[in-house]
């Protein structure tokens, strides 16, 4: 039997397995991993990009807040700290997005082939060396499948169309366990539907907000806007932040 559904057609013939339990468990877990609800928070390496100002700010201006990378990782880890078993995440909590051009498609096909091969080899080896009962063996096969295929869901959460390449996006990505009760799930009005979300704290005990830079976007009164931001930071006790204007000319037409 072949592991259909996971691999492109040209790779399917390369991987074969005659154990129906291994095949069914692998297909079930890989489908489950790819269908989990995912929640992401997005950031960009490009803090002063014209297309981003146009997409995310109004005609009167906006602000680009530059966080330190390590701080964002700590914020993500703190979010998961009290939610073990509710969310799945990559060991690298903050991940760069991957843009699906021809080169990335080649990498993706190779990675999928390696995942399936690794799963089948490990599952077959485990069954051959196991002296456990059939039920226990089935659980072991499921655990191996989960270990191998959980990364599929994370990969889908950071893969974007190549048209967005200029954003150089990074994401905090978390997969919600569908058995979760959603006790702290909240909603806000989106442009076309309700948007479910979870709050990630930016400040907690022993950890102040860590902002490196704030860029004031194109606006009619940049000097006053910069002054207001500095007053806000001072009011909140946040220090060491560079506040600078965007060099992009302001246009409101």
How do the helices and strands line up, and which of them pair or pack?
Elements: H1 9-12, H2 20-34, E1 37-44, H3 50-56, E2 63-67, H4 69-81, E3 87-88, E4 94-96, E5 98-100, H5 102-129, H6 134-157, E6 159-161, E7 169-176, E8 186-189, E9 194-197, E10 211-216, H7 222-235, E11 242-245
Parallel strand pairs: 5-6, 10-11
Antiparallel strand pairs: 1-7, 2-10, 3-7, 4-7, 8-9
Helix pairs in contact: 2-6, 5-6
Please explain how this structure is put together.
This protein is of the alpha+beta class and 253 residues long. The protein has one domain. Helix content is 42%, strand content 20%. The longest helix is centred in the middle third of the chain and has 28 residues, at 102-129. The model is unreliable at 133-138 (pLDDT under 50).
- Structurally, the number of domains stands at 1
Residue share in β-strands: 15-25%
| Chain-averaged pLDDT | 85
What share of residues is helical?
Answer: 40-55%
What kind of sheet is the major sheet? 4 strands, antiparallel
Features:
single chain; 253 residues; alpha+beta; four-stranded antiparallel β-sheet; 11 strands; 42% helix
Quickly describe the structure.
With 253 residues, the chain is an alpha+beta fold.
């Amino acid at each position: 039997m072949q592991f259909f559904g996971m691999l492109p057609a040209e790779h399917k013939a390369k991987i074969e397995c005659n154990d129906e339990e291994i095949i069914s468990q692998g297909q079930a877990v890989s489908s489950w991993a790819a269908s989990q609800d995912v929640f992401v928070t997005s950031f960009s390496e490009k803090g002063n990009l014209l297309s981003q100002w146009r997409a995310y700010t109004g005609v009167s201006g906006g602000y680009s807040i530059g966080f330190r990378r390590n701080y964002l990782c700590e914020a993500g880890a703190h979010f998961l700290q009290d939610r073990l078993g509710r969310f799945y995440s990559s060991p690298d909590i903050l991940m760069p997005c991957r843009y699906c051009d021809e080169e990335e498609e080649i990498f993706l096909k190779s990675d999928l082939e390696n995942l399936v091969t690794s799963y089948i080899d490990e599952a077959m080896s485990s069954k051959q060396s196991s002296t456990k009962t059939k039920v226990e063996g089935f659980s072991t096969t499921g655990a191996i499948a989960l270990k191998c295929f959980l990364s599929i869901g994370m990969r889908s959460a950071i893969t974007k169309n190549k048209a967005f390449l200029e954003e150089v996006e990074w994401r905090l990505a978390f997969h919600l366990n569908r058995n979760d009760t959603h006790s702290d799930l909240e909603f806000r009005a989106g442009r076309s539907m309700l948007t479910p979300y979870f709050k990630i704290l930016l400040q907690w005990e022993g950890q102040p907000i860590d902002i490196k830079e704030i860029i004031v976007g194109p606006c009619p009164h940049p000097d006053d806007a910069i002054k207001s931001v500095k007053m806000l930071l001072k009011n909140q006790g946040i220090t060491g932040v560079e506040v600078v204007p965007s060099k992009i000319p302001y246009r409101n037409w």
